[in-house]
Structure formats: C-alpha cells, structure tokens
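Reviewer 2 asked us to include a model.

Predict the structure of this chain.
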Amino acid sequence: KVHKYSSALIGLLRPIPPLAWVPVAILIFPGTEPAVIYVTFLVAFFATTMNTLLGVQSIDDDYFRAAKCLGAKSKDILFDIVVPGALPSMFTGLQIAMGAAWFSFAAQYGLGFMILESYNLVQYPTIVIMMATLGIVGYLSSAGIRYVGNRLMRWRQEIIGAMG
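Predicted model (structure tokens):
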C-alpha cells in the first residue's frame, strides 16, 4: 500500500519543473536562500528517490522468498536484502542528483549568481572561469559520492572483479 501511494505522489510531483517550485518556495520560506535550498533539495530528492525505487524493484523475488523461508523478520529483509540490493541504484541516483542540483542552484550568492551577474556586466572571462569552477566542483562532488559508494559496496566490486 505504501508503494502505491508514494509512487503515485512522486509520479505526480516529479514532472513539475524546478522553476515552477520557486514561487511556492518563496511563499513558504522567508528569504531567498532557504527557497533556493528547498528547490535544490527537491531536484536532488526526486532523482535519488526514483533511482532507489528502481533499485528496490530490480531485486530478484527469489531473495525475498528465500529469506522468508529461512525465518527472516521484516527488519532483517530490509537491512540484509533491500538496502544492499538497492545501494548501487541509490548511489547512481545520488550522482545524478548532484549534477541536477548544481544545475538548479543559482542563489543570491555563489557561483551561479556570479555567472548571471557577469553575464549582465558582459564579463565573459569571468563566466568561463566560473563555469570551469562549477565543472571542477561538480566533478569532485560526484567523485566523493563514487568514493563513498565504492567503500560501502566493496562486496559488489569483488563480485564484479571476480566475474569480469
């Protein structure tokens, strides 16, 4: 039941573009920065949630049946089957979310603001420098997520290494 309701809600809210959330966020939150953080969170949330859902759905039903036959409790199934089985998709979603969050992030301060302000002031070299900086920061943040994912999923690296 939870899956049906949550997937319907996510399916309804996910297609709404981030810019459409800006007026709502400004009405809900005081100031510009919390609204920008909220919109950035929404972009990242939907990317991560959809990939996590896909990861859980891709787990073979035989694992669940075997766990139940062996007397596993719901908590055991969650932590021993669902979480490890969905981790690869979760981390893929986090990497996509990181990239999407960088695209949607332009606040009153920071790199996005500086790019927009440099465009208005016709300072093209500054724009190129800020774009390169965003690329480097985006790459480093994705690399950080990959590093954490690889550390948490050493078992997967060993299986892939043994098979490949």
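DSSP finds eight helices and no strands in the chain. Helices lie at 2-13, 18-28, 32-57, 61-69, 74-104, 111-120, 124-152, 154-163. We have added this to the supplementary material.
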